[in-house]
Structure prediction request, 298 residues.
Amino acid sequence: MFRRAANLSGDPERDLTAIAADALGILARAGIARGELGAIGLSSPGPIDPETRCILSPPNLPGWVDVPAPAVLENTFGCPCFLENDANSAALAEWHFGAAKGTRDAVYLTMSTGVGGGLIIGGRLHRGIGWCAGEVGHAPVEWNGRPCACGLRGCLEAYVGGRAWTQHLRLKASAGGRVALLAGGKDHIQPEHLVAAAREGDGFALAELGRFNDYLARSLVQTICTVAPEVIVLGTIPTAAGERLCFEPIRRRVREHVWPRLGERVRIVPAALGDRLPYYAGICAALAGIQEGRGSGS
Prediction:
């Protein structure tokens, strides 16, 4: 397996050249010729345009505006490249291989840089108009609340997205507090430092994590009442925090605010694929394109 931090330059052409070089290096190490590839799965933050096959202007990819990434990679590798929203790809991965396997109705949510969501309804990926279904990260949990990277205010992502939460913690944490000490200074705080401090019983960390859980539970209540899934799979920050700090309080909050016949039946569980998720997501993006008969340039 190969993994590299994005370190995006803001220049999509340069970034795609680096991505292609990484992929060519993987093929060379595996002894696979470029012409042996059947398809490429490109899992990208949204929004994306299924008609033009462009990555439009993701809040967390500065400089990436109307980028025809699949066409660029097809020119390099000579095979079809299927573009999919990264949360949709991850939802498919957890549905085929992970925590949602065996269900017909499932929701996947991740709190990484932002907040992504994918919906499996009736045993099929549900994309909605413009492939925008599942964007619960940009539904408000506070009217006129914190500004979000998308340009709106009060979005879930502004409260539980990894980047926004990190900025909030660096602003609110005490320079001499446990979270800052674990991080080596306020300017270095990451969510994992807050989780570590919460495990130690630090009051600030427990209070901030409690707010995180509250906002996430608000969104899950709306999602459950709308979709009524068999399972909701939560990735990244909640999975890292674990049962005691995240899943148990979130389940409790959700059950207090939905009908018992829903709250008792919908499972809220951690993602199962861990560090393997991006690899499965890319595979699932390619498989979805092949199964749906989406050809190169369509």
User: Anything to note?
Assistant: The chain has a mean pLDDT of 94. The longest strand covers residues 115-121.
